[in-house]
Amino acid sequence: MIIIPVEKSIDWRKPPMATIALVICNVALFVWFSIQDNSLHTRALQQYEAQALPAMEIPAYEIYLQRRVRLQGSSDAELLLEIKEAQEEGNARWVSNYMLYDLDFVAYLVKDGPFFWHEDEYRSWLEKRQQINDRYLVYISGFAYGLLPGDTHLSDFATYQFLHADWWHLLGNMIFLFVIGFTVERALGAMRFVLAYLLCGMLSGQFYTLFSAEELVPLVGASGSISGLMGMYVALFGLQRIRFFYHFAIYFGYFSAPALAVLPVWLGKELIEFVFTRSSNVAFLAHIGGLLGGAGLVALFGKSYLQVKEDFHEVTEDESDEIFRNEYDIALKALARMEFANARERFRVLHQKYPSSFDILQHCYHLEKLLPSSETFAQVFTEMIDTCIKRGDLTILMQVYREGTTLSDKATTIDSSVATKVLYACIRQGELKDAELVFSHLRQQATPEMAREGCLLLVEAFKQRQQTMKVNQYQGVLKALP
User: Fold this and answer.
1) Among 6-10, 191-195, 423-427, 457-461, which range has the highest average pLDDT?
2) pLDDT recorded at residue 412
3) Alpha-carbon span 335 to 191, nearest angstrom
4) Cα separation, 285 vs 45, whole angstroms
5) pLDDT band, residue 199 (cuts 50/70/90)
6) Is residue 272 domain-resident?
7) Whole-number percent of the chain with pLDDT over 70
8) CA gap 463, 416 in Å, rounded
9) Per-residue model confidence as pLDDT tens digits over 384-439
10) What angle do CA 470, 472, 478 make, to 5 degrees?
11) Are residue 380 and residue 251 in the same domain, yes or no?
């Protein structure tokens, strides 16, 4: 099961440079160490096989695994079965790889080797193993810079975070680092983000070591640090509801929940997987330590050093566009289902949030004109008129004006000042036929002063066009006005 917070989207105008730098650093170190490790591994394995150590160790390794199965349950039962199958198929090198790097097994043989071999055989085995270890194994990145719980050095708690076992291990961690990292970086700033990343990894390593104090299998990978960032992510949002992506078996989708409510879900998931899949070589304890460490750092220092930047919770332009598209889509679907009351309310809310959107205003107008007697219709009608005049869109202006005046004859009378605005707009754009239509409405509804002013404007407009008959007509109308 995967649950990933996806509340924030990336603002590529301000890219997460620290996150990108960490990803590049991890990839570069992996490539660098892979070249070196492959060479060391090849020489170590050649010497290991040349000295006939696999044949000497395999009986003891089977006993060692059986002992672990009895003491720790079935965590190594699957590995024991795979080794037996490999032996039957003659795949000795696969088994040799396991034994060569299993330092817990080596430590077991150092202690109990005399029970398996004569003293001379034991001393010879010990000398050969020591040579392989000193010449090759100690220089392989996992052993040189990884975190060995049974042999820890302070620097290992930082360096293990930048090592990975293979390409898939690296790829999975870098995807999660980028998805989670850019939001935490945006919240804290680049420098504090990098420090928090390293601290989370160190706390994760400490927690893992606490429960695996005697193990000599190196812990490598950024997953503990990334788990820490996930713990910080939900702690930064607190009880605010945010969006999460989930994937379980063949099911996937999104859900919203209080951010911190997901933290116990993550912890429970890691704990269950630790109990039931301990042979998977996944450091579930490190993940748990990272989650607790990241959330704990925010709890302790969230109001001081790790204080969230002021603009963190502000909605970016990209996020605003996505929110708008989602809300607009919901309103359109309500309209398509002919749920007019629902659609009217949704478009009203959208218009309040996005007053500059002409498309939203048009939807509001068309829905409000279904109830022309309402006060809201008169308001939206007036706003449509004003907006069309500002846009210089005379076609839609006259369409709306004609509809509005027709509907107002059956309902509430529209303010005559609206007709005056439309008259001015028609005359400015030289559409005198439309201006005459508007004046006829203005003459019926407006005060004598407003009607006289409108008539004077028409007379002047027709004079400029040298349309004498129209000039005489409206001069006569002017004389007839009270």
Assistant:
1) 191-195
2) 44
3) 49
4) 31
5) very high
6) yes
7) 94
8) 25
9) 889 988 888 888 888 888 888 787 654 445 567 888 888 888 888 888 888 888 88
10) 100
11) no
Question: Alpha helix (H) ranges present in 411-445?
Answer: 416-428, 432-445
The number of beta carbons lying within 10 Å of the beta carbon of residue 271 is 14
Structure tokens of 276?
A: 């039931």
Residues 1, 265 contacting (CB under 8 angstroms): no
Place of tokens 């009880």: 239
**For residue 428, how many other CB atoms are within 10 A of its CB?**
14
pLDDT tens for 211-263 read 887 777 889 999 999 999 999 999 988 888 888 888 887 788 888 889 899 99
Q: Please give the Cα distance from 125 to 458 (Å, whole number).
A: 113
CATH number of the domain to which 365 belongs: 1.25.40.10
Has residue 30 been placed in a domain?
no
pLDDT at 270 > cutoff 70: yes
DSSP states along 253-313: EEEEEEGGGHHHHHHHHHHHHHHH-GGG---HHHHHHHHHHHHHHHHHHTTTTTPPPTTTT
Q: How many domains does the structure of the chain reveal? A: 2
Is residue 473 included in any domain, yes or no? yes
Residue 238 in any domain: the answer is: yes
Same domain, 260 and 340: no
DSSP states of 202-238: HHHHHHHHHH-TT--SPB-SSHHHHHHHHHHHHHHHT
Band of residue 355 on the pLDDT scale cut at 50, 70, 90: confident
What SS3 class is residue 65? helix
Query: Edge-to-edge strand order for the sheet containing 241-248?
Result: 2-5, 241-248, 251-258
* Residue located via tokens 């203005």: 442
